[in-house]
C-alpha cells in the first residue's frame, strides 16, 4: 500500500477543513504530483482567509473573491475532493463542481447533516462519495474521525480515505445511519471537554489562585489524565477508583458529581446535538 495520497482539494478550508488540511501538511505525508508537482488545493471565500493558508508546503490557496471559478479548478485538479462549506451551501457547490470532477474522483463531505443521497442526486450515482465526521484535534494529529463510505466505494477508495484521516488521528468506519451519532459524541466532544476545563478553571480562580496558575493546574490535569488513560490498559472507571481513596477528599467530591447525574446530562446534551443534526439533514435533503 502506498504511503502517499492522491491530489487533494479542500473546498471550504475553514475551521474543520483547515484543521484537516494543516494536520495533513504537518504529518509530512507525500501528496502525489499534479502537473509535475505535489499539490493540495484549498479554497476560501475571502483573500484574508486564503492568506492564512498561503505558505503551507504544497498548498495552492485560492480566494474565491479573486477567482470565482476557484472551486471548479480545485475540483478538476484533485482526485480527493473534501467539501467543508456550511450545510446550506453544499448543493450549490456540488452543482458548481459536478461538470469538472475527474472520472476517478472521490468526494468526501465534512458537512454536518447533509445525507449522501444529496451528493449522489447532484453528482450522479457513479461518483464515489463519503461522509466524514472529524473533530478539531485533528489539527494536532489527535483527532477522531467517523467515516461512512457510500454504497459504491471500493476497498481501494476506502483505504485512501482512511489513510487521509489517519494522518490526523484515529478513524472508525461506520454506516451513514451512525454518522450523526459520531457528530454528537466525538465531533462536538472537544467542546464538552473545553467547557469542563473552563468551569473548573473558574472554580480554581474563585478559590484564590492566579489565573495563570489555575490554567496550569486544570489543563495539566486534563492532559495528564488523558495521557494516563492512553498509556494503561485500565478503563476509566478503574483509574477513577485508584484516585478515590475510601473516606477521602476525592470520594466526597465524586459523590457530589454523581448526585448531579452527569450521565443523564450527557445523554440530554448529545440527544440535543443529534436532533439538530437530523434537522439539518431534513433541510438539506434533495
TrEMBL record:
Primary localization class, coarse: cytoplasm
InterPro entries registered for this protein in UniProt: 6-PGluconate_DH-like_C_sf, NAD(P)-bd_dom_sf, P5C_Rdtase_cat_N, P5CR-like_CS, P5CR_dimer, Pyrroline-COOH_reductase
Pyrroline-5-carboxylate reductase catalytic N-terminal domain boundaries: 8-113
Pathway info: Amino-acid biosynthesis; L-proline biosynthesis; L-proline from L-glutamate 5-semialdehyde: step 1/1
Assigned EC number: 1.5.1.2
UniProt name for this protein: Pyrroline-5-carboxylate reductase
Entry binding sites for NADP(+): 11-16
Protein family (similarity comment): Belongs to the pyrroline-5-carboxylate reductase family.
Keywords recorded for this protein, A-Z: Amino-acid biosynthesis, Cytoplasm, NADP, Oxidoreductase, Proline biosynthesis
Binding of NADPH, residues: 71
GO BP field: L-proline biosynthetic process
Enzyme class: oxidoreductase
Subcellular location: Cytoplasm
Protein function: Catalyzes the reduction of 1-pyrroline-5-carboxylate (PCA) to L-proline.
Pyrroline-5-carboxylate reductase dimerisation domain mapped to chain residues: 176-280
A cellular component annotation (GO) from this entry: cytoplasm
Entry keyword annotation includes NADP: yes
Catalytic activity: L-proline + NAD(+) = (S)-1-pyrroline-5-carboxylate + NADH + 2 H(+); L-proline + NADP(+) = (S)-1-pyrroline-5-carboxylate + NADPH + 2 H(+)
GO MF terms, alphabetically ordered: pyrroline-5-carboxylate reductase activity
Amino acid at each position: 500500500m502506498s504511503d502517499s495520497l492522491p491530489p487533494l482539494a479542500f473546498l471550504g478550508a475553514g475551521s474543520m477543513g483547515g484543521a484537516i488540511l494543516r494536520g495533513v501538511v504537518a504529518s509530512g505525508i507525500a501528496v502525489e504530483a499534479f502537473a509535475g508537482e505535489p499539490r493540495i488545493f484549498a479554497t476560501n471565500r475571502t483573500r484574508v482567509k486564503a492568506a492564512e493558508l498561503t505558505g503551507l508546503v504544497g498548498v495552492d490557496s485560492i480566494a474565491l473573491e479573486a477567482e470565482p471559478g476557484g472551486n471548479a479548478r480545485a475540483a478538476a485538479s484533485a482526485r480527493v475532493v473534501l467539501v467543508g462549506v456550511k450545510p446550506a451551501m453544499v448543493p450549490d457547490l456540488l452543482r458548481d463542481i459536478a461538470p469538472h470532477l475527474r472520472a476517478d474522483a472521490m468526494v468526501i463531505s465534512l458537512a454536518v447533516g447533509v445525507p449522501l443521497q444529496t451528493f449522489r442526486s447532484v453528482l450522479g450515482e457513479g461518483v464515489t462519495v463519503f461522509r466524514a465526521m472529524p473533530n478539531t484535534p485533528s489539527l494536532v494529529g489527535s483527532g477522531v474521525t467517523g467515516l461512512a463510505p457510500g454504497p459504491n466505494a471500493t476497498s481501494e477508495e476506502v483505504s485512501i480515505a482512511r489513510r487521509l484521516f489517519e494522518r490526523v488521528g484515529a478513524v472508525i468506519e461506520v454506516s451513514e445511519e451512525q454518522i450523526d451519532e459520531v457528530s454528537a459524541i466525538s465531533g462536538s466532544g472537544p467542546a464538552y471537554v473545553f467547557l469542563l476545563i473552563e468551569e473548573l478553571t473558574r472554580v480554581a480562580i474563585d478559590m484564590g489562585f492566579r489565573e495563570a496558575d489555575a490554567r496550569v493546574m486544570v489543563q495539566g490535569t486534563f492532559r495528564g489524565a488523558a495521557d494516563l488513560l492512553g498509556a494503561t490498559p485500565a478503563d476509566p472507571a478503574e483509574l477513577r477508583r485508584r484516585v478515590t481513596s475510601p473516606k477521602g477528599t476525592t470520594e466526597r467530591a465524586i459523590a457530589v458529581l454523581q448526585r448531579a447525574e452527569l450521565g443523564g446530562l450527557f445523554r440530554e446534551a448529545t440527544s440535543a446535538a443529534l436532533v439538530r443534526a437530523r434537522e439539518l439533514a431534513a433541510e438539506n435533503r434533495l
